[in-house]
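Tokens in:
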């Protein structure tokens, strides 16, 4: 069975806003400075932007995002930006801190993001599979430094019977070239979940360039075999 046809037992599991059923609540604390220069807590909440992914297989909580480097903290400009703007998967010249809860047995599509990602397993156990066929098991506390490589995530916690969680921090990168060839990102079916957000305007317009990338990779997926038979 080809990877593109991997059964996704997690579809439809997400029924609530973040967190997914079975995982603890995530609380976000944002600090700042008062008029006297004393450090204070500006807010304590559960995040501004939540988004269901891959047919309710997962749910993302955007804990913070920035749109420039260095970041401008003056007048709490960064806080205002993060509160008002839900980012796309990545932000040009910026960063995204995203917590994703996965349903039991949840499977992501094979995808490549044009970013440098720090992926930290917070709860559960995952199998990370690369398009070369190489794979690693990641347990709580393990970290993947994802350097714009094609990969998928499979939640194998409790033999695929329990939910799990990963924290992602995504940083913008320069255009990647390998052996003189430009390497572009693609999202597969994940792309439809970001339509209309910044950086995903082409998908919203139905441009063929974005579609061609996903369709090409679906054909390339055929060389992989699934452990779900």
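Residues out:
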């Amino acid at each position: 069975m080809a990877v593109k046809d991997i059964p996704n037992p997690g579809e439809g599991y997400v029924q609530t806003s973040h967190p997914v059923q079975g995982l603890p609540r995530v609380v976000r604390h944002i600090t700042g400075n008062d008029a006297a220069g004393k450090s204070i807590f500006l807010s304590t909440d559960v995040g501004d932007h939540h988004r269901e992914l891959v047919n309710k297989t997962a749910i993302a909580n955007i804990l913070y995002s920035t749109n420039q480097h260095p970041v401008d903290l003056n007048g709490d400009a960064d806080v205002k930006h993060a509160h008002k703007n839900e980012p796309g998967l990545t932000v040009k010249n910026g960063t995204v801190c995203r917590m994703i809860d996965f349903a039991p047995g949840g499977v992501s599509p094979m995808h490549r993001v044009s970013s440098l990602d720090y992926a930290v397993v917070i709860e559960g156990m995952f199998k990370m599979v690369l398009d070369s066929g190489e794979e690693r098991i990641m347990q709580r506390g393990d970290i993947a430094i994802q350097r714009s490589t094609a990969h998928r995530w499979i939640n194998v916690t409790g033999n695929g019977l329990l939910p799990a969680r990963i924290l992602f921090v995504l940083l913008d990168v320069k255009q990647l070239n390998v052996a003189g060839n430009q390497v572009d990102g693609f999202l597969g079916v994940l792309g439809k979940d970001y339509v209309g957000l910044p950086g995903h305007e082409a998908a919203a317009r139905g441009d063929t360039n974005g579609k061609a990338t996903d369709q090409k990779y679906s054909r390339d997926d055929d060389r992989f075999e699934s452990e779900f038979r």
